[in-house]
Amino acid sequence: MRVCVALFTADLRLHDNPVLHAAVRDTERVVPLFVVDTGIRRTGFAVPNRAAFLADSLADLDAALRDRGGRLVVRVGDVVEETCRVAAETGADAVHIAGGVSRYAARREDRLRVRLAGERRRLHVHDASLTVVPPGALTPAGRGKDHFAVFTPYFRRWENFSVRDVLPVPDAVRLPDDVRSADLSRTESLAVGPTSPGLPAGGESEGRRRLREWLSGPLSAYDDLSADATSRLSPYLHFGCLSPTELLHRARDLDDPGAQTFVRQLAWRDFHHQVLAARPDAADHDYRPRHDRWRRAPKDVEAWREGRTGYPVVDAAMRQLRHEGWMPNRVRMLAASFLTKTLYVDWRVGARHFLDLLVDGDVANNQLNWQWVAGTGTDTRPNRLLNPLVQARRFDPEGEYVRRWLPELRHLDAGTLHRLPHLDGAARAGLDYPAPIVDLTAAADRFRAGRGID
């Protein structure tokens, strides 16, 4: 009787899961394994919001496997050590895993391959699992070019890539007898501190419910802040509760501009993954150095973190982040631009704060989006500045998004909200809301001087 291990990482689902599909197809018995990685805690990446979402997702995955005659085997410790231990205990001759792109994932995969080979076991890496297009599958013409550095030409190639079909859920998952597992509810490494009050529930079941709800809604309002019509599926993509390949097929079946915008966001996600796979140092080093002379401005940074900058749309975004552990991509860009270009503070400061709170905090997307906004990444217009007043009028014209997150301003009309930073002291009397911490014109001059732009 052949046995293999299906090692779950960031693919916590049964639908369209290449790792589980191949494992069930190739062997009579499968060990669905998740290792609670104690090394992640040491990196500072295991923050309360993501730990809580992970715990939900693992419980949901275990329940789904039990419905098919299996269960999730959980171990705690080093992923390589625990995976090899399970393989030895069960006599597994192979391990299946989804390919990752971060330095941490790459080192884990290399260690696992070497260790398994020494034990005469095989490692099968499935690259089209966490992204639609595997990193490295698309490269520019020209010798020595290993990734696309500009999104538009990448997107043209990505749109025409032959995407694999969606894989079915296995009918049954049969484990070997007597495989030991840790108790999820008592796993100390999944213990969490205080989480955001509005944190969404994790798991494939919840993700699929949200997907159905979003697909049945008015997709045309996808980028409208006031309508709150974005998909909110990014946490489920981050943990692999939903498959990006399935989402692409579902969105392409819809004749709707909002669905087309969503498809483009899936492409951006793949784009960032292929950049990080080729340039892993971009997680914490400038992809394109601009020789910035970043400010150290602790009071300004604290006002930004707390949503007290005096610019309503920026403050609304930061308060939503704290409350939900999530925010729409549009205001992520605005908040990031305000910190890096208006306040001229190092993008790494903001990226760390986002990773501390975002339930979908992902090294590739978070770090490289921050670099794109800061002008140290892949943006072909690295010195563009996003004016928060102009952006608010464009994407929240009636002020509904701002009022949702800034209750102290709910009584103000849209015109007043959009002019608020320009109002004098007398006009602001009685408002429990700060004056702007920076003048936009002076800030733009400071940014250009710091970057050496004439």
Description:
There is one protein chain. It is built from 20 helices and five strands. The protein is of the alpha/beta class. The protein has a five-stranded parallel β-sheet with strand order 3-2-1-4-5, with helices on both faces. The chain starts with a strand and ends with a helix.
Q: Strands, helices and their partners?
A:
Layout: E1 3-8, H1 18-26, E2 29-37, H2 38-43, H3 48-66, E3 73-77, H4 79-90, E4 94-98, H5 103-118, E5 122-126, H6 151-159, H7 204-215, H8 234-238, H9 244-252, H10 257-278, H11 298-306, H12 312-324, H13 329-342, H14 347-357, H15 363-374, H16 388-395, H17 400-405, H18 414-419, H19 425-428, H20 440-451
Parallel strand pairs: 1-2, 1-4, 2-3, 4-5
Helix pairs in contact: 4-5, 6-10, 9-10, 10-15, 12-13, 13-15, 14-15
Essential attributes:
20 helices, 454 residues
